[in-house]
Amino acid sequence: MGYMVDDGFRKEALGHLRRLTGDPTSDFRDQQLEVIYRLVAERQRVLLVQRTGWGKSAVYFIATRMLRDRGGGPTLLVSPLLALMRNQIEAAERMGVRAVTVNSTNRDDWDKVFAGVTSGDVDLLLISPERLANQNFRKDVLPEVGRRSGLLVVDEVHCISDWGHDFRPDYRRIRRVLDLLPSGVPVIGCTATANDRVINDVDEQLATDATVRGPLGREGLRQHVIDMAHPAERLVWLSETIPKLGGSGIAYTLTIADANRVAEWLKSQGLDAVAYHGALEPEKRLVVEQRLLANEVDVVVSTSALGMGFDKPDLGFVIHYQAPSSAITYYQQVGRAGRQLNESWGVLLRGAEDEDIQDYFIENAFPPVDLAEEVVAFLEASGESFTATGLEEHFNVRRTRLAHLLKTLEVEGAVERDGYRWRRTLTPWAYDRDRAEAVTALRRVEQGEMVGYAESPTCRMAYLRNLLDDTTEEPCGICDRCTGESLEIDLDPRLVAQAVEHIRRGYLTIEPRKKWPDSGWIPTEHRSEVGRALSRWGDGGWGDRVAENRVAGCFDDDLLDAAVELIRDRWQPDPSPTWVTVVPSTRFPGVTAEFAARLAERLGLRFVEAIERVADREPQRTMNNSAMQYRNVEGVFTATGAINPGPVLLIDDVVDSRWTMTLVGVALRHGGSGPVYPFALADAAGRST
Q: What's the per-residue H, E or C state across 609-658?
């Protein structure tokens, strides 16, 4: 028996739905009207778990309109990807819901937006969870918005939970928003990816009155898994298969570098492909989103940045170039394909590098317990405040990890921020070690579940539904396990060779350091020039060869040929180097110097060992931030007196922090050399070497 809703309420809500969709024949999907009634008529707190494309946004837009018509305050919507809701906001405006947002791109409009909320001219205010971290917003705006709110919507609400597949500490600030709400204000938390563990946690945190949950299976989604260890093979498969799948789609990668590389390969093979990731400027991301929505591109190659919140009902396919670390994440992404199509494709290409990349993300997702305790103890003992840069001088931790840690500690009340400085609060605090260890252990379990998805002999969709505690058991009937069909193809060896060459030709720039860790500027006349790295460490192209040759004790002629081609034909430093020198190594003595001498000979330049190592230190790869990296190489190198006055090509096998190249460059310039051009066989920044 369905939820009892009176005819008058249904008629009113249905009218809003049809104005929202622009279709006079539209009707509610199962449970949509129930949720709207719970919010509007019964003022409940509801957790809504429904598959992607079910119509969760329609529920809270209609509820907003109906609550406003009954004298309620504006809706506060917390969503992780505001940019991807533009099309939904435009649809809501057709039914008279005036929606606005505050974000980093419209800072000049904030006062006007907040005035509109206060005056009643705004029906719905959208903010990101990160906006809750802004001190001025929390202090000056949020209390007023909270007191006036008529409905609170938390999109992707699984992020509130430690057990959700994303660790986003800013989501935990939503508990404070709940405390600001007047009595009787309804709340709805929405997600498409929540199992029983997450649901129970979110239920407790939101103090929900009801959980409305639907089946998570996707009709028409043809799921396939193909093992393709080498990235060149995957590149060829993509360029050969995407044109056959039909429509526009998304190809997901785990890294920004891979998103760019895959998009460039597909473009070289005649496809209209474009990269999308968090490093892309917001305006450019919007253009990509709009082109994909309009089917003006064949494929968008994206990191997880194009995930939660994206709504394209006719998305023809979702392909994973690499496997994510969680089957739940995989379901959330692949479920975006073909929600209004009779047939769509979800294909997972498993690569040899998947596990290493997954490990990196898992190990860096949750702040280390010992580090958290050490930072808090240090701030407490000092009684002073420090910038993040100042803390880096005391803790060997990457800046991004430190920033994440400080944000987490701020949410927990252990530290507070004053501008750019951090200090200990008076709030008693102890790290919940059991919780942290349990969450990390869960991430490893989820990693194993992703492997299980790929290797299980059972129906793909049934496996995913089971992980999400969906009790629907019937097989989908259309995945590769159910049909026995495969999307594997015979790969043209010539195309594979071209793809290998594409990977190998993707060099990286070595940007010179311009400031010392203490914020003082390195004099222009002592700085190195922009350099080049032949490859990224372990990238499946030259990066693999560099790693193998390094251990073997000799860089082979293929690497030498590639280095010569890059320097002479594609880089062409100007003014041209007149001699070559090398960064001396203690870990691989003589290996890089021998390569540098051969390279100099091939380039017709003189080779001079102009730099001497005068101290031994820990491997630079063990230093995790700029201050520590600088300190680790300070005083290690000195000029020998054999420096030539002309421009010099400075050779190292692997570049990581850039501080070694920087300080050696300073020594060379001090010694009388001309411009210094750094060159490395591989860039290992952020990776274990």
A: CCEEECCCCCCHHHCCCHHHHHHHHCCCEEECCCCCCCCEEEEEEEECCC
3-state secondary structure of 78: strand
Is 184:152 a contact under the CB 8 Å cutoff?
Answer: no
Global confidence as pTM: 0.85
Closest of 49, 71, 51, 55 to residue 20, by C-alpha: 55
Virtual CA dihedral for 386, 388, 392, 394, nearest 10 degrees?
20
Nearest to residue 415, comparing CAs of 373, 457, 376? 376
CA distance 457 to 157: 32
For the annotated catalytic residues, the residue numbers are 56
Cα angle value 116/120/125 (rounded, 5°): 60
CA distance 286 to 263: 17
Per-residue tokens: 247: 């429509």
Task: Give Cβ neighbours of residue 26 (< 8 Å, ≥ 6 apart).
Answer: 14, 17, 18
Nearest to 666 by CA among 528, 573, 529: 528
- What is the rounded radius of gyration, in angstroms, for the C-alpha atoms of the chain? 28
Q: Could you tell me which residues come within 8 angstroms of residue 551 by beta carbon, excluding any fewer than 6 positions away?
A: none
Contact 442, 195 (CB under 8 A): no
First CA to last CA across the chain, in angstroms?
Answer: 62
Q: What is the pLDDT of residues 658-675, one digit of tens each?
A: 999 999 999 999 999 999
Q: pLDDT by residue (tens digit) across 219-258? A: 899 999 999 989 999 999 999 999 999 899 999 999 898 9
Distance CA 676, CA 668 (A): 8
d(CA 682, CA 677): 15
Question: Which position has the higher pLDDT, 85 or 520?
Answer: 520
Instruction: Decide if pLDDT at 268 tops 80.
Output: yes
Do 101 and 90 contact (CB within 8 A), yes or no? no
Tens of pLDDT, residues 581-635: 999 987 888 899 999 999 999 999 999 999 999 998 888 888 888 889 999 999 9
DSSP notation for 469-509: T----S--S-SHHHH------PPPHHHHHHHHHHHHT--EE
Mapped onto helix, strand or coil, the DSSP state of residue 124 is strand
Measured in whole angstroms, the distance separating CA 78 from the mean position of its chain's CA atoms is 19
Domains of the chain: 7-213 (3.40.50.300), 221-355+441-495 (3.40.50.300), 360-429 (1.10.10.10), 505-683 (3.40.50.2020)
